[in-house]
Write a sequence for this structure.
């Protein structure tokens, strides 16, 4: 079974703290993605990566950065957490070779609260 | 970017078929239509996808309009375990191999026993 794991299910941080959200996949996938999910807004793409050390901005990258030093690991960084970054964060991965499907496999999510 | 429109919520009785509609009037010729669902406290999971022709798999069927401006996900016999938020997504080709998804806000399906 494909597995995408996220470092924490729940996280509480203070305003101004630097926050690291870690995501690891075990299927040797090339693509990895970070989304945030908020009520009424659905899933919105923050950043994605299609190869080690490669990254591209998604729809809402402001206030976030990412790091992909190894193929299996994709980190989301909040340089200075703010209360409007309180959200559910979802990581996903997909393969380049999917026969046209390019199915994304999602982790269970990290619910981040910034106080 | 092309977008999708879905009803916010729908209800179905257990063991009955469910038709979940999705409008995507600005779809481009190379956009694939994907459906994912999100069970409570879990990340989304793949259900089905298609380009032009209707598709069937063990989970559901996907009916795509001839003009591709709308599609319908069909659950043939809803069970209580099918209660979830269903997302209709257009897959944006973008940079080769990246295949970014454009999520809508989804339809919350409630299944009544």
């Amino acid at each position: 079974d494909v597995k995408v794991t996220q470092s924490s299910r729940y996280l509480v941080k203070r305003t101004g703290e630097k926050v690291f959200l870690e995501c690891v996949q075990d299927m040797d996938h090339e693509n990895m993605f970070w989304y945030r999910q908020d009520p009424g807004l659905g899933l919105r793409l923050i950043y994605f990566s299609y190869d080690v050390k490669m990254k591209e901005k998604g729809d809402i990258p402001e206030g976030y950065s990412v790091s992909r030093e190894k193929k299996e690991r994709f980190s989301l960084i909040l340089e200075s957490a703010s209360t409007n970054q309180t959200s559910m964060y979802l990581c996903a991965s997909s393969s380049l070779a999917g026969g046209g499907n390019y199915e994304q496999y999602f982790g269970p999510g990290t619910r981040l609260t910034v106080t | 970017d092309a977008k999708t429109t879905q009803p916010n919520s729908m209800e179905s009785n257990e063991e009955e078929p469910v038709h979940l509609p999705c409008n995507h009037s600005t779809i481009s010729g190379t956009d694939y239509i994907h459906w994912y669902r999100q069970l409570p406290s879990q990340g989304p999971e793949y259900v089905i996808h298609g380009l032009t022709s209707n598709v069937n798999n063990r989970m559901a069927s996907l009916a795509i309009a001839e003009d591709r401006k709308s599609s319908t996900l069909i659950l043939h016999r809803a069970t209580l375990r099918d209660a979830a938020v269903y997302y209709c997504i257009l897959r944006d080709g973008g940079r080769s191999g990246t295949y970014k998804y454009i999520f809508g806000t989804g339809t919350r399906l409630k299944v009544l026993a």
Summary: The two ends of chain B are 39 Å apart (CA to CA). Chain B touches chain A at residues 32, 36, 41-46, 49, 51, 87, 91, 95, 97-101, 103-106 (CB under 8 Å).
